[in-house]
Design brief:
580 residues, alpha/beta, ABC transporter transmembrane region fold, Rossmann fold, 6-stranded mixed β-sheet, 4-stranded antiparallel β-sheet, elongated, binds adenosine-5'-diphosphate, binds magnesium ion
Length: 580
C-alpha cells in the first residue's frame, strides 16, 4: 500500500537498471532481502503470545503457560536478533560491493570523457555525481530496503494478528491508520525538488573547496579571504535553507500521524471494551489486539521514513545511471585501426571547429605537415594556435572537414594508438602527487638506463643530483615543490621516455624567465631531433629555425612558409608580428 506511493513501477525500473551491477551477487542479494522477512515477522510473536498468556495465566491462572510463554518470547527474540545480524551483514556486504563496482565503473567512465566534458563540468559536480551519489544510491537500495522489507513484514504480520483477534476492530483500526499515512504521498514531490537542489548546492560547495586549494595563492595575494568566505557562505546558506525548509514543510507529518494513530487507538479501546463486555471477545484477544496495534505504529512510521529515504536514493540512482550511460563523445570507431608507424605526415583538410556549436574558432583550416618537419604556429593570442595543437591528439572532436595522419582520418585510428604516437608538452604541465620518478615514468615499464637517458636529455640530471632522494623525491600534489622550469623539464623527460614520432609543444617555455627558458629550450632542442614537431612558440630563434611558419589569424591560416619567404611579403602579417 505504502510502496505504491513511490510507484512500484519506478522501483522495479530502478532495480532492473541496476541489474547488471547486482548480477554478480544475485544469490546473496536475494538471501539478504529474504532474511528481512522473518526479521520483521518475529515482531508479531509478542503480540500473539499475549493472547494465550492473558487468557490462560491472567484469567484461568494456569501456571504452565506462565512458564512457557515468556520462554518462547525470549527464544523468538534470540532468533530475531541472529537473523537481524545476518540481514545487516549481508545487505552491507552486497551494498558495499555494488557501491565499489559502480564507483569503479563511473571512474572508468569519467576518464573516458573528452576535454570538452571537463571544460564544462565543475569539479564539485564530478565528485558528487561520480562518487557521493553512489553512496546515497546504494544506501537506499540495499540498507534502507532492509528496513523497508522487514518493517513491511512486521506490519503485515501484526495486521494478521489484528485480524486473528477481531476482524471488526481491525477494520476500524486500519481505516484510521490508513488516514494517518495518506499525507506521506504529498511529501514525495517536495522531496524530489529539494533533493536535486541539495545535490546542486553540495556540488557547488565541493567546487569551492577545490578552488580554495588550487587557487590559494591568488586568494592570499589578492586578499580574497573575505570574498571567498562570502561566496562560500552564500553557497552553504542556500543548502542550509533548503534543508530547514524541507523540515519545516514535512515535520508536521510525524506529529500528525501520532495524533491520528492515538485517535485510532482510542476508538479501538472504546469499541474493544464494548466487545469484551458483550462477551464477543476474550480479554486475551483484546490485549493481544491492542499490543499488535501499538506495535504496528512503529514499523508503519519507520516504513514512512524509510520510503522517504528510499525516494532520495532513487533520485540518486537515476543520476548515477545517467552518468554511467552518458554518451562519450570521443571514442574508438567500430573497426578502428592501429596507428603503428608514422610514415608521411599530418594533414588538416577544411577543418571547422568550435568549442561551442555556434561559435567557430577554426574555419576551413587546412595545412599539411610533412614527416620530419618542424612547423611553428604564430599569431596573436586567442587566434587558435592551441586549438590546432589540441585537435591532433583528438582532445576535441572537429565539426567538419578532416584531420589525417598518413592519409587516414584520425577518427579511424584507435585513440590509444593515436595518443601513443604523440607527445604533448603544454605551457603548464600537470604533475601528480608522487615522486619525480613516478611523474616521469608514468606507469611505463622502463629500464634504469632509459630513465637516466631521458633525465639527461631533458636537462634534469643536475637538478636531480642536488636532491637528497634524487629521482625519488616526493613532489606533492600539482608539483608544488618544483619551479616552473623544473616542471617543464619533467614534462619533457616524459616525452623522451614516450619516444613518439610526433611532438606537440604548446608555448612550453612561455611562462618561464630567461634563465629557465634557456635550459628548457635546450631540452626541447634535444627532444625535437629527428621528429615531426608542431610548435606554438613566441621565441624568435625557435620560430626562425622551424622549417615552415604558419601564421594564424582568427582561426584562419593567413601565411605559410619559411622565415625569409614570409619576411618578404609586403605588409605581411608575419612581418608585422616579427617587427613587434
Ligand atoms: N576550452 C575552451 N572552451 C571554450 N573556448 C575556448 C577554449 N579554449 C580556447 N577557447 C577559445 O578559442 C579561441 C582560440 O583559443 P586558443 O586556441 O587557446 O588560442 P591561442 O592558443 O592562439 O592563444 C579563443 O577565443 C578562446 O577563447
Ligand atoms: Mg595557446
Amino acid at each position: 500500500m505504502l510502496l505504491n506511493k513511490v510507484s512500484s513501477a519506478q522501483v522495479c525500473k530502478c532495480y532492473f537498471e541496476m541489474l547488471p551491477y547486482i548480477k554478480p551477487y544475485t544469490f546473496r542479494t536475494i538471501l539478504a532481502f529474504a532474511i528481512c522477512i522473518p526479521v520483521g515477522g518475529c515482531d508479531a510473536v509478542i503480540a500473539m503470545a499475549l493472547k494465550p498468556y492473558t487468557d490462560l495465566v491472567m484469567v484461568e491462572k494456569s501456571i504452565r503457560a506462565a512458564w512457557y510463554i515468556p520462554f518462547a518470547i525470549v527464544i523468538f527474540a534470540i532468533i530475531q536478533g541472529i537473523l537481524n545480524y545476518y540481514a545487516s551483514y549481508l545487505n552491507t556486504w552486497v551494498g558495499e560491493r555494488i557501491t565499489r563496482d559502480l564507483k569503479l565503473e563511473l571512474y572508468k567512465k569519467l576518464l573516458s570523457h573528452d576535454a570538452a566534458f571537463f571544460d564544462k563540468t565543475y569539479s564539485g559536480n564530478i565528485v558528487t555525481n561520480f562518487s557521493n551519489l553512489v553512496d546515497t544510491a546504494s544506501s537506499g537500495l540495499f540498507t534502507k530496503i532492509k528496513t523497508i522489507i522487514s518493517k513491511l513484514a512486521s506490519s503485515i504480520s501484526l495486521i494478521c494478528v489484528l485480524f486473528y483477534n477481531s476482524w471488526e476492530l481491525s477494520i476500524v483500526a486500519i481505516i484510521v491508520l490508513g488516514c494517518a499515512f495518506l499525507p506521506t504521498a504529498k511529501i514525495r514531490q517536495k522531496m524530489q525538488d529539494v533533493m536535486s537542489k541539495v545535490i546542486k548546492g553540495s556540488a557547488m560547495l565541493i567546487t569551492e573547496y577545490n578552488e580554495s586549494c588550487a587557487g590559494n595563492k591568488v586568494i592570499t595575494s589578492y586578499n580574497l579571504h573575505k570574498y571567498q568566505q562570502i561566496k562560500f557562505s552564500s553557497a552553504i546558506n542556500s543548502v542550509t535553507q533548503i534543508r530547514v525548509k524541507l523540515i519545516q514543510k514535512t515535520a508536521w507529518l510525524s506529529p500528525a500521524m501520532h495524533v491520528i494513530t492515538s485517535i485510532g487507538i482510542g476508538i479501538s479501546i472504546a469499541y474493544g471494551s464494548h466487545l469484551i463486555v458483550s462477551k464477543q471477545m476474550t480479554s486475551g484477544s483484546f490485549v493481544s489486539f491492542l499490543t499488535a496495534l501499538l506495535l504496528l505504529y512503529n514499523p508503519l512510521k519507520n516504513l514512512g521514513n524509510s520510503i522517504k529515504d528510499f525516494q532520495m536514493s532513487m533520485i540518486a540512482v537515476e543520476s548515477v545511471l545517467s552518468s554511467l550511460n552518458a554518451d562519450v563523445n570521443i571514442k574508438d570507431k567500430k573497426n578502428a585501426i592501429e596507428l603503428k608507424e608514422f610514415k608521411s605526415g599530418i594533414v588538416f583538410r577544411d577543418v571547422d571547429f568550435g568549442y561551442s556549436p555556434n561559435c567557430l574558432v577554426l574555419e576551413s583550416f587546412s595545412i599539411e605537415i610533412k614527416k620530419g618537419e618542424t612547423v611553428a604556429f604564430v599569431g596573436s593570442s586567442g587566434s587558435g594556435k592551441s586549438t590546432i595543437a589540441n585537435l591532433i591528439p583528438r582532445f576535441y572532436e572537429i565539426n567538419s572537414g578532416s584531420i589525417e595522419i598518413d592519409g587516414i582520418d584520425i577518427r579511424n585510428y584507435t585513440l590509444k594508438s593515436l595518443r601513443d604516437g604523440i607527445s604533448v608538452v603544454f605551457q603548464d604541465n600537470f604533475l601528480f602527487a608522487g615522486t619525480i620518478r613516478e611523474n616521469i615514468v608514468l606507469g611505463r615499464d622502463v629500464s634504469d638506463n632509459e630513465l637516466q637517458k631521458a633525465v639527461e636529455m631533458a636537462c634534469l640530471s643536475e637538478f636531480v643530483s642536488t636532491l637528497n632522494n634524487g629521482l625519488d623525491t616526493e613532489i606533492r600534489e600539482r608539483g608544488l615543490r618544483l619551479s616552473g622550469g623544473q616542471k617543464q623539464r619533467v614534462a619533457i623527460a616524459r616525452a623522451f621516455l614516450k619516444n613518439t614520432p610526433i611532438i606537440i609543444l604548446d608555448e612550453a617555455t612561455s611562462s618561464l624567465d630567461n634563465e629557465a627558458e634557456a635550459i628548457v629550450q635546450k631540452a626541447i632542442d634535444n627532444l625535437m631531433i629527428d621528429r615531426t614537431v608542431v610548435i606554438v612558440a613566441h621565441r624568435l630563434s625557435t620560430i626562425k629555425n622551424a622549417n615552415r611558419i604558419a601564421v594564424i589569424n582568427e582561426g584562419k591560416l593567413v601565411e605559410l612558409g619559411p622565415h625569409e619567404e614570409l619576411m618578404n611579403i609586403k605588409n605581411g602579417r608575419y612581418k608585422s608580428l616579427y617587427e613587434i
